[in-house]
Amino acid sequence: MSLALLGVLMLLGAPPQGRSRVELPLPEVRVLPFEVVIEPFPNARARSDEADVRERLRLQAEAWAARALRVNGVARAASASDDKAASGFPRLRGRLSMPASLPRGVIGFDAMVRRGRFMEGKVALESAEGVLIAERRFTLVWGDGQWLKGGRGRRNVPLDQVLLAFARKAVDRGVLGLKRSVAESNAGKGSGQGTHARGGRD
Prior knowledge:
There is one protein chain. By secondary structure, this protein is of the alpha/beta class. The chain has 4 helices and 8 strands, in the order αββαββαββββα. It has a single domain (3-186), classed as Rossmann fold, CATH 3.40.50. Strand 5 and strand 6 (132-141) form a beta hairpin. Helix 2 (50-71) packs parallel to helix 4 (159-186). The two termini are 37 Å apart.
């Protein structure tokens, strides 16, 4: 039996209380290209390499999503893929929205102690047929970032490294939220119908 067929059969399990169970981990999940939106930040100069930054964030998010799906027990196997190669497999979609540049002086400790949202995004897990299984939205605040490194003589972390770390943490939070949404849906607590569990915001 192929992994794709096995995944479909698992998604068609016995429905408790009118819902179809989704048994995790799935045999294999394909991670589709993430959408990365660069948000302009007040008083920050636009970067000439913004397209390159967006691409690095996209690749980091997709690679980390595949890892997070495996490590957190959502899928036994997972890999980045395009739409064509993902045909016949459950798939993960994602979107990240974050700034790529900050005003001069907003870095290190000054950035870490800021309050409010730094970035947001969402991830969605779909069946092999494209049916939404679960969706999770999330927000990360300034303090979630890795702005400093070292011990007693701590140093500022370069912004590009901070952004990549934010992307990794966001993906981890989103995948864990998806797993929680599926568990709640299986237990009859989800907000959707059938295998559709929108979940909430983390």
